[in-house]
Structure formats: C-alpha cells, structure tokens
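Take a look at the protein record below and flag anything odd:
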Amino acid sequence: MSRRWWILTSISLGTFVSVLNVNLVNVALPTISRVMDLEISQVQWVVLVFSVTVAATLLIAGNLADLVGRKKVYSGGFLVLMLGSLVCGLAPNFPVLLVGRFIQGLGAAMPMANGMAITTTTFPVEERGRALGIVGSMVGVGSLTGPVLGGFLIDVLGWHWVFFINIPLGLLAFSTALALLPQDSQSRQHEGFDGAGAFLFAVSMVLFLLALSGVADRTTVSALTTAGVAVFGIFLWWEKNQEAPLLDLGLFKIPLFSTSLAAAFFAYLSMAALLILGPFYLEEVLGCSPSQVGFLMAPYPLLLTLVAPLSGWLSDHWGPVYLTTGGLLLNVFVLLSLGFLGSDTSYLDLALRFALLGLGMGMFHSPNNSTLMGSVPFSKLGVAGGANALVRNLGMLLGTTVVVLLFSSFQGRYLAGIEVPSRVQEIRAFLHGWQAAFTFAALAAALGACFSGIRVRIFNRKEADEMKFKIVPDR
C-alpha cells in the first residue's frame, strides 16, 4: 500500500476519534443531568462549551498549522483532547466538567481544521474524491459507534467513562499521526500570526453564545447581541485590511463556495434537535435504558456511513446538486413527521425515521464537501477545509441553543400554573416542546435545500470539470 493511503488511514482514525467523542457525550447527557441534578437548559452547556470553543478556535488552528506545520498541530490536538477528557472524567462537579469540555474543544479543533486539507493535498485529482469519501464515512462510523459504546459504558462503568475512553483512543490517533503523516512545508513562516483577528473572532462567538443561551434577561440579551454584532463587524473590517488575514473573505465571492457553506450550515443546524433531544425522548418518554438509546439512535449514522461514499461517487458522474437538494428535502419531511411522535411510538417506526434522516444526510454530505473543496484554488484548500468545519460546528452550536430554548419555552408554557404535574402531564409537556423543536429543524433543512438548489443555476458539468483541473497537488 502506497504511503498516501497510510496517511489516509491516520486521518480516518483521527476523524473517527473526534466524531466519537461528540456522540459519546450526547448519550450521557440524561445521566449527567440526573446525577448532577441539572435541568436541560443547564446540561446543554456540556455541549455548548465544547461547540463554542471549537467554533472560536478552528480558524486559529488552521492558521497556526500554516505557520508551524499541519502535522504538529493535527497530532498535538489529540494530546490536548486527552487532557480535557481526563479533567472531565475526574470532574467532581459541574463547573469542573465544563472546564474539561473547554480543554476538549481546544484539542478537537486542531485535527478538525486540518484533516480535510491534509487529505486534499496528499491525493491526486483522480483519487481525491474517493479519499474524501472515505474520510467522510468515518463521520458516520463515529456517529454510529458513539451512541452504542456510550450507552454500554454508562450502563457498565458509569458516565465518567464516556470521557476516559478518549485517552487510549486519543493516544492511538496521536501515535499514528506522528508516525505516518509527512512533515509539510511551512509556507507562511515569514508571516506573523493574526492575533488581533483571532481575538476578535473568539470574542464575537462568545458574545453570541451568551446572548442565545437563555441565562440572561431580555435587556442583557439585547446588549450581548449588539456587542457581538459590533465585534464581529470590527473583525470583518480588520480581516479586510490584512495581508495575511485569519479568514480570507475573498473566498465568499465564489458562488459555489458560499452557497455550499450556507447549505452545510443549515443542514447541520437541522440535526441538532435529533442529536440533543433524541436521547431525552427515548429515556424520559419511552423509558429506554442508555444502551437501548444507543442502539435506537444507530440507524441514522449507519445509513449516513453507507450512503455517503456512494453519493460521492454518484456526484462525480451526475453532479451534486440533485443529490444534495433531494437529501435535504427528504429530511424536511422526516423532521416534520418526528415532531408528531407520541408516547407509544414503536421502536421499528423510530428506526425507520432515523434511517431516513441518515439517508438524507448521506446524500448531502459527500457531494456538498466535494463541491465546496473543488470550488477554491489549491492555495486556499486549508482555509476552505477550516471554514467547512467551522460552519458545521456553528450550525450545531446555534441549533443546540435554539432547540433547547424552544423546547424549554413550550414545555414551560404547557406546565404553567401546574404545581405538581402528573406523569401524563409531564410527557405531554415534553412532546409540546419536542414538536416546536422539530418544526424549527424542518425549517432549517428547507433553507439548506434552497441554498443547495440555487446551485443549479451556477453549476454545470463544464464548470465541475474545470474545477478539477485547477486543483492539483503541489509537487
């Protein structure tokens, strides 16, 4: 096997570990909520602290890799991830757990920002689509394994082990990256790091998060939102005037790049309802154990894993637009149907709906990534990969916040005036919030389908062929 396929093996393993970490924690949220006596609006911070840290540092990690080398940043990220996992597993209380999640977010951003760029620069054009498809399928494998392994670990060893398991896995990913990844050229050693841009971007992300979190009153939320918009505006102005900016704003003038990013943002925004509220529905409404939750959530990532490589191959022959748009339209209808679930839904019914969501995301994922990476010059592939990871995390971040706010608001409105709700009333209140959250998710998927569909007017086979010839590896 040639060296580039060994490099792909390392990147695939790293992608699997990163995705597994996210999905292990999602299954543990109900248990953490009970053990630490937390409401859903509080336990969401386990997800949000990680997500906002990743979102705020992805661009920084990408730029740092250009300065010191992608191998160092990519492999070093797993050491930071292991440290954060140790802190989380040993956490005696909720604040320490959040500190650990912050450290995990720093570590996870480092391989996330660089994996796709390393793959793209390693493979020639005739093999690149296949390689990216394999890496993309690891997202599904990690998503599939996470709920099942997480449920098993919680039942047998306790919730702490959804964090401890990252230590041996992270060590394996670090070792293979150190041994297999090549030392790459440091093309920007002569440039300074855009520290001001990094600071402004991180501050704007934190301000937006606090505004959306529901932890403040309306006046404070307005102030935080205004401050976030102002800081982000200053960030954009700063970046526009830099010779070596943190984020190259010129990429957004490329129609296929900007529409592909927008479609990805709304696609991942739409998945937050299932990934955050799904385990709570299965445990609190249907009475499932953590292990059962893992198996019942598995059809979604399983279909994603199986369909993503096939859809990538089909997009090479038929073009991506109809696959990506069709997948998101399918998800619109499935998400709407999930909003009307009751307390007596059969496991087979749930498995079928989750599988259809996986089919839809599998149709979208690989063709959209291929379009996005193929739309930019070779010299900007690292930035494109970082931006792709950024919008994915921002979509999940914003989706988590809005879903929890909607759920809590509609659930609380249903229970208003009821001092001691009965079990039936609690379930009905849950389903009231559940329906609101999934209606929002369906709307997000519809917006993603719109951005995907408008590419019909700017994409044809001639343009796709021309893009492929632009992207050739540096030799």
In short: Residues 381-415 form the longest helix (35 residues).
